[in-house]
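Researcher: Good morning. I'm working through a list of sequences from a screen, and I'd like to move beyond sequence-only analysis. For each chain I'm collecting a predicted structure so we can compare shapes side by side. This is the next one on the list. No need for commentary yet; just the structure.
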Amino acid sequence: MPFIAEGLFSTIANNKEAIKELKQIRKTYKIYSKILDDYLWIVANGKELQELVTEGVKDVIYTQEEVSRMIDECVSKEGLKVIHKVKKSFTGATVENIENEQDKI
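Model: Good morning. Structure tokens for this chain:
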């Protein structure tokens, strides 16, 4: 939950049933990217990615791990557009490895 009212957290923390329910809440976010000029989803993990695909979501879906990897690898805007185009062509695909073509030279 991105926004938790003051006092609510301590109430939830003391209620085991509420904690169990919170853990089952899917953490998915649909955002619009100006760079990509497209909507995309960011999910916590591969399981949530597959759930959205099964539900028929047609937008590109990224896991938090993929986003972190692209940030760590300093993927350029152009690189991000290429990755997005590939993911758009292959529904449910995930980024496993990022290589810079210039690193191969």
